[in-house]
Specification:
The structure is a single chain. With 577 residues, the protein is α/β, with parallel strands linked by helices. It folds into three domains: 82 residues, Gyrase A, domain 2, CATH 3.30.1360; 203 residues, Rossmann fold; 188 residues, Isoleucyl-tRNA Synthetase, Domain 1 (Orthogonal Bundle), CATH 1.10.730.10. The longest helix has 25 residues. The chain is flat, with a radius of gyration of 29 Å. The two termini are 34 Å apart.
């Protein structure tokens, strides 16, 4: 039940204030002993011509604010504090969660609306490194969040598959390419010859001319050059998709820069027709002074288009084909100015849907006291990071299983290590606000008692083991809607129920701010509150059968919430560890 809304409706009836105004004024007190919700009466002072303290007292004494789910209404100075009956709170919350299970937090607020999320967007023929993981993980999570709230989500992977680098690759491949090596490890071989091209180019300027010539042929659609470009693209996608599959990431569209390059002339024509292009140092630009940003280059001095032109073409294409209500770009924070320019050009050109385009930036990736061996000295490959995390997680699981005397098959150990190790990497990207830099530390990432995926997954697995043990003893959780759930009224139970009840709100907050961190913070709070409850309350040793069953239902609710929350972050769970 949405208690806040029910209280707001009653306050609106009694005071005459608009419902929207009431909802904005209702607060959540900083301390539990001050109630669940508080309403400040200052806004009523002008209309009622009384001091807020007096208004608060009169409203409380009137009895008009009594609701069946409230245990008490107090007036404290100018505030009305509302206390929800703990038993009713537990009954409503646990019943809702265990009825909905994985669908807990689902909503239809986005019904009929389309959201495009562009994320990942690696460069063809280049390694997928830990920086690419930021956009991939955040974008994947946002896609899941919008989908959970009823939006139609279109996931775009705007591949970097266009530009002079492909002229260089074609030249390099013809000179030094190894077909066998390319088939065995495409990205490694393409990176090798690309690096070699730059080394050789320093002493051989003819290579530069050759690369330009090959790129020109590619642009002109020459058969041999297009065939090589397609080969490099297809091979790169095979490698990328192996990593995407491992991470559980999918896309609806792989149109890259090359797809929109052919539409660039239409963009230039449209801007010319609208009289927006002006010359600046030989280039054609759109002046954006009224938007407070520098001019946006549309045509370079040599008459060629730039990636900003292609981004404008992409937005026009997307609106024409999807009529999006939101068009989100999960791209590094340094690109903020670029997107302001692109969106401003469209706005100046009279396309109001430019206001529905949004850049979702993120920080940098760093490493703390970590020695890491990669296949390239300048980057850390995401695959290597995940493999290392899985290997270290496996060591912990094997050691723990020996210590506890738990037998596990090699297959089960591998499956658990993969989920937990991968989850540890993913969670590191979503545990804090996305614009904060990430500092990797194995000690922090794999801490089974810290703010980590291993801690959350372990909490889930341990709770599942309690439920299995209870079943072995013939004890089943209270069914949803059972009156026994009203016995869940201790301080620890109430804190846990309250945090579980806040989970759907955290999804909406995550959507409104494009911050998966809102969800990771909430489920972490749920896990902390559960472990506090677990350490202070006996579940299977509770005083009565009804209380045992109610507490087991609370365990179920915790598992359903954790699973739903971790899924929204792109992290799986395991049934035991």
């Amino acid at each position: 039940m949405d208690y806040k809304s029910e209280i707001a409706v009653k306050l609106s009836e009694v005071t005459g204030l608009e419902l929207d105004q009431i909802n904005k004024l209702i607060e959540i007190p900083p301390q539990v002993d001050m109630g669940d919700y508080a309403f400040p009466c200052f806004a009523l002072a002008k209309t009622m011509h009384k001091a807020p303290q007096m208004i608060s007292q009169e409203l409380k004494e009137s009895g008009k604010l009594d609701l069946p789910f409230l245990s008490e209404v107090k007036n404290v100075g100018p505030y009305l504090n509302f206390f929800i009956d703990r038993g009713v709170y537990a009954y409503d919350t646990v019943t809702e969660i265990n009825n909905l299970k994985d669908d807990y937090g689902k909503d239809n607020m986005g019904d009929g609306k389309t959201v495009i999320v562009e994320f990942s967007s690696p460069n063809i023929a280049k390694p997928f490194h830990v920086g690419h993981a930021f956009t991939t993980i955040i974008g994947n999570s946002l896609s899941k969040i919008y989908d959970k709230l009823g939006y139609k989500v279109v996931k775009m992977n705007h591949l970097g598959d266009y530009g002079t680098q492909f002229g260089k690759l074609i030249t390099a491949y013809r000179l030094w390419g190894d077909e066998e090596a390319l088939n065995k490890a495409p990205i490694d071989e393409l990176l090798r010859i690309y690096v070699k091209f730059h080394e050789e180019e320093k002493n051989d300027p003819s290579l530069t001319d050759s690369a330009r010539e090959n790129f020109k042929k590619l642009e002109d659609g020459c058969e041999e050059e297009v065939a090589l470009w397609q080969k490099f693209r297809d091979m790169s996608l095979v490698v990328f998709n192996e990593l995407y599959d491992r991470m559980g990431v999918t896309f609806d569209n792989y149109n890259g820069e090359s797809y929109y390059a052919k539409m660039a002339d239409q963009v230039v024509g449209m801007l010319k027709e609208k009289g927006l292009l002006v010359e600046s140092e030989g280039a054609q630009v759109v002046d954006l002074e009224e938007y407070g940003v520098p001019p946006c280059i549309i045509l370079k001095s040599d008459g060629t288009t730039i990636y900003g032109t292609r981004d404008i073409a992409a937005i026009l294409y997307r609106y024409e084909n999807y009529h999006f209500d939101k068009n989100i770009y999960v791209v590094g924070t340094p690109q903020a100015l670029h997107f302001k320019q692109v969106f401003s050009v469209l706005k100046k050109a009279g396309y109001d849907f430019a206001d529905n385009c949004e850049h979702v930036g993120f920080g940098l990736v760093k490493f703390k006291n970590m020695k890491f061996s990669t296949r390239d000295g300048n980057i850390v490959l995401l695959e290597d990071l995940i493999n290392e995390s899985v290997a270290k997680t496996r060591e912990v699981i094997v050691e723990n299983s020996k210590t506890r005397g738990v037998e596990m098959s090699e297959e089960e150990i591998s499956e658990i290590a993969e989920k937990v190790g991968l989850g540890a990497v993913i969670y590191t990207y979503v545990k804090s606000g996305r614009e904060r830099d990430i500092v990797f530390s194995w000690e922090e990432m794999l801490d089974f008692e810290g703010d980590t995926a291993p801690y959350l997954i372990y909490t889930y697995a341990r709770t599942k083991s309690i439920l299995r043990k209870a079943l072995e003893q013939g004890i089943k959780p209270s069914q949803a809607g059972s009156d026994s759930l009203k016995f869940l009224n201790s301080d620890e139970e109430y804190q846990l129920v309250r945090s579980l009840n806040d989970f759907p709100g955290s999804i909406v907050k995550a959507m409104n701010s494009n911050e998966p961190f809102m969800i990771s913070r909430q489920i972490s709070t749920c896990a902390r509150n559960f472990n506090r409850f677990y350490n202070n309350s006996s579940i299977l040793g509770a005083d009565t059968q009804e209380l045992k069953e109610a507490r087991l239902a609370l365990c179920e609710a915790l598992c359903n919430t954790l699973k739903a929350g971790l899924d929204l972050l792109g992290i799986g769970v395991v049934e035991r560890m």
